[in-house]
Amino acid sequence: MLSPRRSHPSKHRPRLPEGVRIYAMSDIHGCAHLLKQMLRVIDADVARSRPRYAIEVYMGDYVDRGPDSRATLDILINRSRRGNTVFLKGNHEVFLGNVLRNPSLLPEWLHVGGLYTMMSYGLAPSSAPGEEERHALVRDLARAMPRQHLEFLDKLRLTFVCGDFFFVHAGVRPGVALAEQQETDLLWIREEFLQSKQNFGKYIVHGHTPVQTPELLQNRANIDTGAFATGNLTLLTIQGTSMLAV
Q1: Are 54 and 21 in contact (CB under 8 A)?
Q2: Can you list the positions of beta strands (E) in 26-113?
Q3: Cα 221 to Cα 245: distance, rounded to the nearest angstrom
């Protein structure tokens, strides 16, 4: 049974449509073993609560840093066949795509966790690959990645809206309408968004910036608890005006 980590303090709480129950996760970062655990939690909760519409929302950064990006994508692709899943793009998926198009970016990607992704596909780059090795490694990675993985990454969305909730990887730029947000901000923004107390028009659910425990604040919820470093992958459930983080 799901239990609250922290309750939402607002007197005017954001609300989902009647009968909808959302399960949200962010920043899995190759932690396939933690993802499997949380999927069991979701399945048990759905069996117990029997919502009319159960929607799973995954908010990006599926790859890099953790031990098994390949298995993580396999699990998510298999989960997508249920038809009630939404997959958003994270900045690490963008980085991976950029490297596949431009091998010169490989050293920078390896430095931010791409090494673990390459290893999960059976590749072992040197500590400082030269230009020739960079091109060879990226070619080998593209060949090693199953077509389904490349298609999955290509189809990722930037945002998802349901009721009063707006789901996104990193956040939004204050003062800019949600419909006019730029992709760079949606995937990368930090301080300007995190320090803002304004009402964004929707309640923002995001990850991207690790926190020790889930933050369910007046205008936003941050559920990135640094799974690859802490072993804690947070699941947020929302139904009606209730939000529970485990």
Answers
A1: yes
A2: 53-58, 85-87
A3: 10
pLDDT tens for each residue of 72-105: 999 999 999 998 999 999 999 999 999 999 999 9
Q: Which of 127, 184, 186, 139 is nearest to 160 (CA)?
A: 186
The model's pTM is 0.94
Taking alpha carbons only, the member of 156, 178, 159 closest to residue 170 is 159
- All structural domains of the chain with their residue ranges: 20-91+157-245
Query: Does 115 score more than 90 pLDDT?
Result: yes
Angstrom distances, CA of residue 51 to CA of 14, 30, 47, 58: 18, 29, 9, 19
Distance (Å, rounded) from C-alpha 171 to C-alpha 137? 33
CATH number of the 20-91+157-245 domain = 3.60.21.10
Which SS3 state, helix, strand or coil, does residue 47 take?
Answer: helix
pLDDT per residue as tens digits for the range 212-244: 999 999 999 999 999 999 999 999 999 999 999
Contact between 79 and 39 (Cβ < 8 Å):
yes
Q: Averaged over 14-38, what is the pLDDT? A: 98
Question: For 184, how many CA atoms within 13 A lie in the half-sphere containing its CB?
Answer: 0
Q: Which residues fall within 8 angstroms of residue 176, CB to CB, at 6 or more apart?
A: 182, 185
Please give the helix or strand (H or E) that residue 154 lies within, else none: helix 147-154
E-strand stretches of 121-222: 159-162, 165-168, 203-206, 215-216, 220-222
171 residue type, one letter: G
- Between the two ends of the chain, the Cα-to-Cα distance in Å is 10
